[in-house]
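User: Hello! My lab partner asked me to get a predicted holo structure for this protein. The small molecule is coenzyme A, SMILES included with the sequence. Please write out the structure tokens.
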Amino acid sequence: MGFWKSLFSGTDASPAPKAAPMERYVGDEADDRATTNRIFFSTERDLDLYELEELCDAVGWSRRPLRKVKKAIQHSFLVVSMWEQRGAQRRLIGFSRATSDHAFNATVWDVVVHPDFQGKGMGKALMKYMIKKLRGEDISNITLFADPQVVNFYRNLGFMSDPEGIKGMFWYPD
Ligand SMILES: CC(C)(COP(=O)(O)OP(=O)(O)OC[C@H]1O[C@@H](n2cnc3c(N)ncnc32)[C@H](O)[C@@H]1OP(=O)(O)O)[C@@H](O)C(=O)NCCC(=O)NCCS
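Assistant: Hello! Below are the structure tokens for the protein in complex with coenzyme A.
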């Protein structure tokens, strides 16, 4: 656990390799590349949808039609994927996206960390990265819909439920 946390909090001075679409490089350049795991964030949307489906399967989410997932990603304001790199191999280990009016509001969707990587600070790092990106676009109102079992995960990150008594409301087809 401490190992992953130290990767995130360490001096991430090394830029992502130019050829890769990765936005952030975390790790120690001096480490042995063949044996050291590195974690990257990417805002690239051209994801392998089957790999994303595998990640969602791993946390037990119901499958969604891939053509709709593709459309949702294309039309999202921000898409963040999190990758583990071991040598030349990359593995998708986390994902999240946000929709937005591009001015005031953004809503975060589909926050997921692979079970192999949960409980190691990855979800927190992913959400902090999302928030940083959205704040960088001058979005001030960030909302999300939390499953009951993860409310405290989001509370820890500063999200409030029902601020000033405001209730989220839903309409579903009959
Ligand atoms: C929810 C999820 C993204 C959290 O990711 P994670 O990498 O396990 O979380 P982290 O290790 O970064 O935890 C960050 C903090 O939140 C806490 N936390 C993590 N999961 C929690 C949960 N379910 N309930 C309450 N607190 C939680 C951790 O204890 C940690 O606290 P700390 O900062 O005091 O140490 C991950 O468990 C997941 O993908 N779950 C399945 C999919 C899901 O439910 N997504 C959310 C849909 S709304």
